[in-house]
Amino acid sequence: MKILNFIHVTVARAFYSWAMKEINPMHPDVPRIMQRQRELEDKAQRIFA
Q1: Does the reported pTM lie above 0.90?
Q2: From what superkingdom does this record's organism come (predicted)?
Q3: Helix (H) or strand (E) holding 19
Q4: Which has the closest alpha carbon to 34: 13, 9, 8, 48?
């Protein structure tokens, strides 16, 4: 199960990283994307803690 969670987090982090490169910095979803990136980073740290 840890492997599946890790794969999910890795793919999601890659997606949000790509989204931040492509999105207009003034788009209203930018804060939500940044929050989700932080959540995923925390989740990745908890998986292998």
Answers
A1: no
A2: Bacteria
A3: helix 2-22
A4: 13
CA distance 35 to 48: 21
Crossing angle between the packed helical segments 30-47 and 2-22, to the nearest 10 degrees:
150
Q: Which of 40, 45, 46, 48 is nearest to 16 (CA)?
A: 40
| 1-49 pLDDT tens trace | 889 999 999 999 999 999 999 999 999 999 999 999 999 999 999 988 7
Structure tokens that stand for 37 in this block:
């990136």
Distance in angstroms (rounded) separating the CA atoms of residues 48 and 28: 33
Beta strands of the chain (E only): which ranges? none
The single-letter code of the amino acid at 33 is: I
